[in-house]
Amino acid sequence: MINKRAVIGLIIFMMIMASLFSAQSAFAANASRMIGFSARDEGMAGATTASAEDTSCLVKNPAGLVRIGNRIDASYENILLHDVTIHTEGRLVGAGLPNYTNAGMHQTSNINYIPGGNVGVSYRIPGTDEYPISVGIGGFTIGGMADNYPGSRLNTALLANGGNYDKMVDMRTMRIAPGIAAAFNDKLSFGMTANIDIQALRCNLAHTITPVGLTLFDETAGKGNWDFTVGGGFTLGILYKMFDMLSLGVSYESHNWQGHHYQYKDCLPYIDEPPIINMGVSIKPIKNLEITYDTRYINWTDVKIARNSPDSGGFGWRDQWVFAVGSEYTTFKDKLKLRLGYMYGKSPIQPNVAFTNSLLPVILEHHLTTGFSYFITKALSLDFAWEHHFKNSMVDSGGDSIDSVGNGTKITSAADVISAGLSYRF
Asked: Of the given ranges (87-96, 190-199, 293-302, 414-423), which has the lowest mean pLDDT?
């Protein structure tokens, strides 16, 4: 017999630990966005907009709160980065003068392990059985990006005081999402969350200055120190169960407006989260099998720093369409759920801005996921997921006056993510 108090205590401990670590995660797969927000969500490649089974619905589709009952979910993830490299090329400052970049330099990022996590709790309000109303709150790793190379991507002869900077960016976004959902009947539900984002940033990027001899760049005022800001937005969702075999889901996540990074106002003053539209379908063709599909539109061009070209101080990103399919099969007398998923999303980075984004190498496009849940009891499950993010490379094709200094630079990235968690229904 499993002690209920011990289980709840363990889950709460995991929630606290995951909350602490979730603020430290700095890897994402849909550009700077994570694939999933629980072990189940990740195991199904994020294709859960129409398939609510845990508190990850607070991010994907809050209308699902009325479907998941009373529960606590906590997961911890290990993000294993590998093959994150930069091979720098570029053009000369002028005749007889050195290159702008560290031309010919091949470097590998020394960030290869990042912890992360997600936690959430949901509760159905008593006395609302006819028209259920549920509330919930969660802390989620929304996304980020991180790399740190041994040397500058720029020619150190052009840096102030012979410095070694413009080689590291580390950005992390955590979200606290309180939500509420109501069912109008046994088919249709609506939900909403308030999105409170906490964003941490540190970097040692270079910025241009009035030339002094060969010195063209100085280090950002933040000089690699952490800077924190808070932002906000909202998410709305609808879930419709047409019949037992088919459910449809749609959600809209607003532009999340972040505060000012004052220490980095000379390079990265504002880094907002983009508006996102999720559309999903869930099909149960046979008793123990569920197949899901999601289409996601990420409106990066609504974010000023993502939309602007490098010579205007931006990243030069384009909007992103993401397509994901997931599956879940229940077996072993309902004690085991097996999951498999695949996601594709073309990178928002284009070759003509590859050098500008070489410290933000969010170029991963193909993602394969799998996972399982094992029910120790009817109320308690152990959850596991693995994501493989296939290696991708991009070569700079020469863009505007800023990006063209690194024409020919090659960036490469790949990663794996392992997640484990516990879920308890009460």
From this structure: 87-96
Q: The tokens of 244 are what?
A: 């037992």
Q: How far is the C-alpha of 271 from the C-alpha of 305, rounded, in Å?
A: 7
- Residue 131 to residue 189: CA distance in whole angstroms: 9
Give the pair of three-digit tokens for residue 381.
């499950």
Q: Are 364 and 396 in contact (CB under 8 A)?
A: no
**Alpha-carbon distance 196 to 257, whole Å?**
10
CB 33 within 8 A of CB 345: no
Among 153-167, 248-262, 399-413, the range with the most confident prediction by mean pLDDT is 248-262
Nearest in space to 152 (alpha carbons), one of 169, 170, 164 = 164
Buried-exposed string 236-258: b where 16+ CB fall within 10 A, e elsewhere: bbbbebeeeeebebbbbbbbbeb
- Integer Cα distance of 268 and 202 in angstroms: 10
Q: Which residue has the tokens 């508190």?
A: 55
Identify residue 309 by its one-letter amino acid code. Answer: S
Q: Give the angle 386-391-396 at the CA atoms, nearest 5°.
A: 145
Q: Give per-residue burial for 124-163: e unless 16+ CB within 10 Å, then b.
A: beeeeeeebbbebbbbbbbbbbbbbbeebbbbbebbeeeb
Cα separation, 284 vs 423, whole angstroms: 23
pTM > 0.90: yes or no: yes
Report whether pLDDT(199) > 80.
yes
Over residues 277-306, the pLDDT tens digits come to 999 999 999 999 999 999 999 999 999 999
Is the pLDDT at 22 greater than 70? The verdict is no
- pLDDT of 2 higher than 60: no
